Amino acid sequence: MAAKPKPGTVRVAVVQAEGCYFGLPAAVQKTCDLRVEAAGKGCDLVAIPEVWIPQYPGWIWQRPINDSAEIHPSMLGCRSIVYGFHVRLLEFVAETIH
């Protein structure tokens, strides 16, 4: 168990993990699992990369520029709707898991 922090202290976990490409439900589940893991280690806040959901593949720029018709629909299908189910689930986990 993690040492009890001093009053006024915030313990932060920074995520450096492989994401879930083109799979919004899997990405949300992994995010929730990481939050639960961090809370179990005494962390109050979890910082995730800005393009974690949907996972923005670093290799996207290595593909031919003219194949956007193939790849972009897959990426758009993985976007989260503001205040949609997935965002509400992430909010719930962030607020309740301590």
Automatic annotation (TrEMBL):
SUPFAM superfamilies for this protein: Carbon-nitrogen hydrolase
Signal peptide region: none
Which keywords appear in this protein's UniProt record, sorted alphabetically?
Answer: Hydrolase
Q: What is its EC number?
A: 3.5.5.1
Report the residue ranges that make up the CN hydrolase domain in this protein. Answer: 10-98
Q: Which family does it belong to?
A: Belongs to the carbon-nitrogen hydrolase superfamily. Nitrilase family.
Protein name per UniProt: nitrilase
Q: What molecular functions are annotated in GO for this chain?
A: nitrilase activity
- Which InterPro entries is this protein grouped with? C-N_Hydrolase (IPR003010), C-N_Hydrolase_sf (IPR036526), Nitrilases_CHs (IPR044149)
What PROSITE patterns does its record include? CN_HYDROLASE
List the catalysed reactions.
a nitrile + 2 H2O = a carboxylate + NH4(+)
| Pfam families according to UniProt | CN_hydrolase
